[in-house]
Design brief:
The chain folds into two domains: 5-173 and 291-378, Aminopeptidase; 177-289, Alpha-Beta Plaits (2-Layer Sandwich), CATH 3.30.70.360. It contains ten helices and 18 strands. It has helices at 5-8, 11-23, 32-44, 96-112, 134-140, 200-218, 256-276, 296-310, 328-331, 360-378; strands at residues 48-53, 57-62, 70-76, 80-81, 90-91, 120-126, 151-162, 166-167, 171-174, 177-185, 189-190, 225-234, 240-241, 244-253, 280-289, 292-294, 315-316, 336-344. A hairpin with an 8-residue loop joins strand 4 (80-81) and strand 5 (90-91). Helix 6 runs antiparallel to helix 7. It starts with a helix and ends with a helix. The chain binds zinc ion (2 copies). Residues 94, 130, 351-352 line the site of one zinc ion.
Length: 379
């Protein structure tokens, strides 16, 4: 592992920032203390600071030559409830505390090199990554404009990759994450008079089975797709035929075309089956996060930089996951990469486990990577 003196000199500050965020976790769009801390640190370092973007988002800016590239680095800010039934279980169990500390570490380094920066740099601290649409809100509020961002970079500390390793490749690396809600509409009646009613439970059962045919019969086996039905509810009595059933599920894939195709198939299957039995179906397909698709050109550069840090044998050049990340919204607008920084130590706890923790080693590798990217594109 090769960590530069620039980064090693920032080790104490890096861990101090991380410990602060870790001790003060806040849920999405409620990251007020976090936001204040970041704004203060960026101001002290001499950044031009924009606050309250999409509620609690912060952007630090160093303006350079307008003819040179504008490079953006992004960290997410929110913690999660590790027990949905316990409001006191808020924790940084996804490592966003590490992301923010690393980005502040980069801010520190850029301040030291301010006079050598050739372009413009935007450090974007984004709220509400955990399924709340923070990235899209930040884009709506203009973080990619004035000046226009040319390339964007993010990292994620990742429990499924060993500490000391880096996962990076071009193309899709994280899946899209969409949701669908189907309401099957029938007609209630007495259980002993089935011919006088339209049984929504019977129809829903046919729909659930038929939806499994999308992956197995309609999509090429070469594609990676998940269609999972995760909730079904309806009916209330022993002897009343059910009038309405609600089905909820998720679809995940690496390809936007497949996504659109699956959404159409879900609608067609649900409505056709329901109508064939005399009922009807209303389908709401919610396009939430597109897949994280790394730009090939930048991924080649990040791979080289990663090899310099952890050695070629520790760079996983094909790592992909079906998890989602809303950094993908930025990638829909501009080229960029998301890199996985391995943080799986001897004590393995997966992402979102209350005991999830990121060690100093992974923090240093993450900061070294961000600093290397900044040096490559800006200095
Ligand atoms: Zn997460
Ligand atoms: Zn995360």
């Amino acid at each position: 592992m090769r960590i530069s003196d620039d980064v090693l000199n920032l080790k104490d500050t890096l861990m101090m920032d991380k410990n602060y965020f870790n001790a003060n976790p806040e849920l999405g769009f409620l990251e007020y203390k976090t936001s204040n801390y970041i704004s203060k640190r960026l101001s002290e370092l001499g950044f031009e600071v924009r606050e309250n973007i999409a509620q609690t988002g912060v952007m630090g800016l160093i303006r350079g030559d307008a003819n040179k590239p504008c490079i953006m680095f992004r960290a997410d800010m929110d913690a999660i409830l590790t027990d949905p039934d316990d409001p006191n279980s808020i924790k940084h169990a996804c490592g966003h505390d590490a992301h923010m500390a690393i980005l502040l570490g980069l801010a520190n380094l850029l301040t030291q090199k301010k006079n050598s920066i050739k372009g413009t740099v935007k450090l974007v601290f984004q709220p509400g990554e955990e399924g709340l649409g923070g990235a899209a809100s930040m884009i709506d509020q203009g973080v990619l404009e004035h000046p226009t961002v040319d390339k964007a970079f993010a990292l994620h500390v990742w429990s499924e990759v060993e500490e000391g390793k880096i996962g990076i490749c071009g193309g899709p690396v994280m899946a899209s994450g969409d949701e669908f809600l189907i309401e099957i509409l029938g007609k209630a009646g007495h259980a002993a008079l089935p011919e006088k009613s339209i049984d929504a439970i019977f129809i829903a059962s046919q729909v659930v089975v038929a939806l499994q045919s999308i992956v197995s019969r309609n999509v090429s086996p070469i594609e990676t797709v998940v269609v999972s039905i995760c909730s079904i509810s309806g009916g209330c009595n022993f002897n009343t035929i059910c009038e309405k059933v609600t089905i909820k599920g998720t679809c995940r894939t690496y390809d936007n075309e497949v996504r659109r195709f699956v959404s159409e198939r879900i609608k067609h299957i649900a409505v056709s089956i329901a109508r064939s039995f005399g009922g009807d179906a209303v389908v709401e397909y919610i396009f939430k996060h597109p897949p994280v698709i790394n730009s090939q050109e930048e991924a080649i550069q990040i791979t080289k930089l990663s090899e310099q840090i952890v050695g070629s044998e520790n760079v996983i050049k094909s790592y992909r996951t079906m998890c989602t990340e809303d950094f993908s919204h930025f990638q829909q607008k501009i080229p960029g990469t998301l890199t996985f920084i391995g943080c799986q130590s001897d004590k393995y706890y997966p992402q979102h486990n209350p005991n999830f923790y990121v060690n100093e080693k992974a923090m240093l590798i993450g900061l070294e990577l961000f600093c290397s990217i900044a040096k490559k594109y800006l200095i």
